[in-house]
Please model this.
Amino acid sequence: MAVSGAPDAPGTPDAPVTAPLAAALAEAERIIRTAPHVRTEADVAEGLEYLLGTIRGVIEGGQHRGRTHPQLFQATGPYTKMGLDNPDTLYYYANLADGAEYEVEGVRGTTADLSFQVLSGNYTADEQGRSRAAFDDRALEIGPDGRYSFRMGPPRPDHGGDDDEGDADYVVLTPGSSMIAVREVYSDWDTERAGWATLRRIDAEGTAPEPPTVEGQERFYAKLAEALTGRLQTWLAFPAWFFGDQPRNTLGEPRRTPGGLTTQFSSAGIFELGPDEAMIISVPVAGVPYQGFQLGSMWYASLDYVHHQTSLTADQAHVTSDGMIHLVVTDSDPGLANWLETLGHTEGIMQFRWQRVDAPIGPELGPTVRIVPFDALADEVPCHDELRVTPQQWRERIAARQAAFARRGLS
Model:
């Protein structure tokens, strides 16, 4: 135990425990201000707002990092955005330890998709986390009341070895498995309701974590500092991994989403529009449980999806008489139901997701993209008159969006 007042003891004025975090905050602001896409004061303001969410996210994640008594926690939400968070998804995580056994219990809600994934490692600016297992609730036995449960742990030699073949209620955690992610996805914000899930470590049940120590807090603050700058650098680097040399204003052919989400396909790209330009995206209704589109910033985070329409699912979008969804991406209001607001961004991320699919999403179900002058939308948007809305109708759309989001109870 360090002696209080010693020159270099942890927690003294000469060696503050919080010093690494203070230095990381200054470095984080430097990263924000010097990011490649930052050109204007508005870009800086958005970056500093994003930094606030990043600070909150790493603190919440850090406080739940304890591997002796883990709990599922919400690490990505409207104020802790990262990784092009999907506006339609509830994200929950918990940390895992080698050799331990866990039980996940829950109740299935009425949402479009519920999936589970076990990961190893972390997403950093230099590497991506690896998927060790991924499945959705169709792999589970769900009771009449919606209840389900399954266990996770090391291989059990008396149950089939490394794969535990034949036991759908036990997920083998190979060495290095560090996290479980639970994703619950809405297609209709108005009618669908989420369930719930809990996780407990079997051998820790009925016990309590060790009390905090100054030495432990010193390590904690050092990890927070590393996580803060690391998270910023990771998601700034991610678009280059994901898109490579893909031209601007194109959406790639649908493909399985990288990262091991076995029932998800995606099509993504980067938009870049002038003040008098609009993008028309046309896509068939795929008839899968979840089909959604969203816009994001170059921080690789969703745009404000609560007070603005920056995302739409197939259930939320207006499907025209030709059986298609015609989306219009632009900054100015075109007076159309399927307008996706860029919120002043001249460039940003755009992505489609198809989830809980039973068959590959081929190019015939993928989107087409056209850039047209804003003033030509009436002539260029298919079924334009079917999509028209009045200012009052638009305000009602946003009010319904706000109310539906509020029912999720996220903050």
Residues 19-237 form one domain. The helical segments are 19-33, 41-63, 214-243, 377-380, 391-406. The chain is about 20% helix and 25% strand. The radius of gyration is 23 Å.
